[in-house]
Amino acid sequence: MFVYSAPESLDLFDPISLEEMGKAELMDRTDLKYMFRLDQLDFFMSSVAEYYRVLEINGKRLFRYETVYYDTELNKLYRNHHNGIMNRFKVRHRTYVDSNLGFLEVKVKNNKGRTVKERIKCSRPESLNDENASSFICSLVVIDPGELHEKIDINYDRITLVSKTNAERVTIDLNLTFIADGKENMVDDLVIAELKRDAKMESPFLKLMRDNNVKIGSMSKYCMGMAVLELDPKKNNFKEGLMKIFKLVKK
């Protein structure tokens, strides 16, 4: 299995610490997602190095993320996304492997296109019926936590860029791996970049994507993983997006 190491272009960026980055968290934001080939990453990174700082912890700039997504037995949260229902949400637990930190997260996308994320620090719970997990979820969305079960693990490596001048971040994910029901699929030639900002402002990364004709994508990692591993029979609305992704990485 091919695993990509940190690109050389990372050395061009000034560092930012986790503490500094935490002072300007974007928990309520708008997101733009882009997908491109792995062999384009170094060029894109070097093109914007003067405008961003890169998250660095203990000398590392590429970090491992392990995330489990929860859904109902009939995949209600997945199907809400598939059917285009607004004011939808996801429930997940994310482990930051390199720093040994874990968070239970609820991510809500409202009908105005804004993404609001809330989280609490905790290790991966055995059940969302745990009092702490249950009360957290119920305070944010209308669902019985007892109906939610571990559905899929999605792991990847991430680079995080932080604007030197604006309330803006870019996360760059690679080595994307989906695991569920004894199945595993790694999409090792794909990079998923997300531009996260608190207002509709111009940004160097957005301009870079436009100038290189990289189109805005919309498929979430959760929905992609569910469709790729065929964990739900309902995926017609994602077929076109999946075809574009696999056509892209085969170039």
Describe the structure.
The chain has about 250 residues and is of the alpha+beta class. It has one domain: Hypothetical Protein Pfu-838710-001 (Beta Barrel). The protein is about 25% helix and about 40% strand. The protein contains seven helices and twelve strands. The protein has helices at about 20, 40-50, 75-80, 130-140, 205-210, 220-230, 235-250; strands at about 15, 30-35, 50-55, 65-70, 90-95, 100-110, 115-120, 150-165, 170-180, 185, 190-195, 215. The longest helix has 14 residues, at about 235-250.
Write a concise keyword list for the protein shown above.
single chain; 251 residues; alpha+beta; Hypothetical Protein Pfu-838710-001; eight-stranded antiparallel barrel; 7 helices; 23% helix; 38% strand; globular
Short synopsis of the structure:
The protein is an alpha+beta fold and 251 residues long. The protein has helices spanning 18-22, 41-48, 76-82, 131-138, 204-211, 221-228, 236-249, and strands spanning 14-16, 28-37, 52-55, 63-71, 88-96, 101-109, 114-121, 149-163, 168-180, 183-187, 190-197, 216-217.
